[in-house]
Amino acid sequence: MTIFSRIINGEIPCYKIAEDDRFFAFLDINPVNWGHTLVVPKHEEDYIFDLDDDELAAMTLFAKRVAKAIKEAIPCKKVGVTVLGLEVPHAHIHLVPLKCEGDMDFHKKISDPDPEKMKQIAAAVSSKFE
Ligand code: 5GP
Questions:
Q1: Does the beta carbon of 110 sit less than 6 angstroms from any atom of ligand 1?
Q2: Is the entire prediction scored with pTM above 0.90?
Q3: Which residue among 26, 30, 47 is best mutated to probe the pocket of ligand 1, counting the most ligand atoms within 8 A of its Cβ?
Q4: 3: CA distance to ligand 1 center in Å?
């Protein structure tokens, strides 16, 4: 079982943003910027483009709803979208609020993010999710 499946199952804590019957969104534990969120399918699949068309389309639409919530909760110009998938073998979309390109530099992660701030951000974004 992947670490993200264990998060979805509640075995490992996370700063949850939203979920529906097929997808789950939570803050990245090592954010590149405040509000950095991961969107994952509950169904375990390593490579995002191995998801079937219906699941990939639905995941994109779920990510769109999460991005809208991030944009409303966190001051930013746009919400950037990236798929890497090199570390955790469970398909995921990175959503990062951006004021400039440098806000999405995966070499510059926020080290040891303040748990209280992460909690506040998760609550703020979650409250905007529709
Ligand atoms: P990628 O697979 O896209 O290269 O990177 C995986 C991402 O998942 C990283 O940004 C990393 O910080 C995040 N991540 C890894 N383990 C955990 C975890 O246990 N909890 C959370 N919230 N994020 C994680």
A1: no
A2: yes
A3: 30
A4: 9
Half-sphere CA count of 10, side-chain side, radius 13 A: 1
Residue-wise pLDDT for 53-91, tens only, equals 999 999 999 999 999 999 999 999 999 999 998 999 999
Query: What is the three-class DSSP state of 57?
Result: helix
Q: How far is the CA of 128 from the centre of ligand 1 (A)?
A: 23
Distance CA 48, CA 71 (A): 24
Which two tokens mark 118? 């992460």
The closest alpha carbon to 42, from 66, 65, 18, belongs to 18
Average pLDDT of every residue of the chain: 97
In the prediction, which pLDDT does 22 show? 98
Active site residues: 92
The structure tokens listed for 90 are: 């469970």
